[in-house]
Write a structure and sequence with these properties.
By secondary structure, the chain is mostly helical. It is built from four helices and no strands.
């Protein structure tokens, strides 16, 4: 039972790290979709938001409930904060910078995940085994 609990704790950490990457992917998707709309048709802000809201890929995605850090969530909201406040070129530049930030962040998270996810699983499993042996 202890081994299973310990292993599931390691698995939970791995799943959480993977969910961070998925959240960043969705934020990048939102930013690129807005950039495409701004560059091609210069639509109304309300139209852009309704397009994003109705997107099937973003179904059930909420920045607040994502497992990102507080400052990352604030940076994600900056994409929406810029909309309609400035001229089109300024909006595009600001959103491009924010999307670039998230692309770099995704790269860092993916690199960390690739090099550490096996460690979390192994430490969870062997930590549980060690603890069980010590109790016996």
């Amino acid at each position: 039972m202890i081994i299973l609990f310990s292993f599931s704790l390691g698995l939970t950490i791995v799943i959480n790290k993977k969910e961070q990457i998925r959240s960043i992917d969705k934020i990048i998707y939102i930013g690129e979709k807005i950039l495409l709309m701004l560059a091609s048709t210069s639509p109304d802000t309300q139209f852009m938001l309704s397009e994003i809201e109705s997107d099937k890929y973003l179904k059930n995605f909420d920045i607040n409930s994502s497992c990102l850090k507080k400052e990352e969530k604030e940076k994600a909201y900056y994409i929406f904060d810029v909309l309609g406040k400035y001229d089109i070129d300024s909006q595009i530049n600001s959103i491009k910078q924010t999307v670039g930030y998230f692309k770099q962040l995704r790269e860092q998270y993916q690199s960390y995940y690739n090099s550490h996810y096996k460690l979390y699983l192994v430490f969870g499993l062997f930590g549980g085994i060690l603890f069980s042996v010590l109790l016996i």
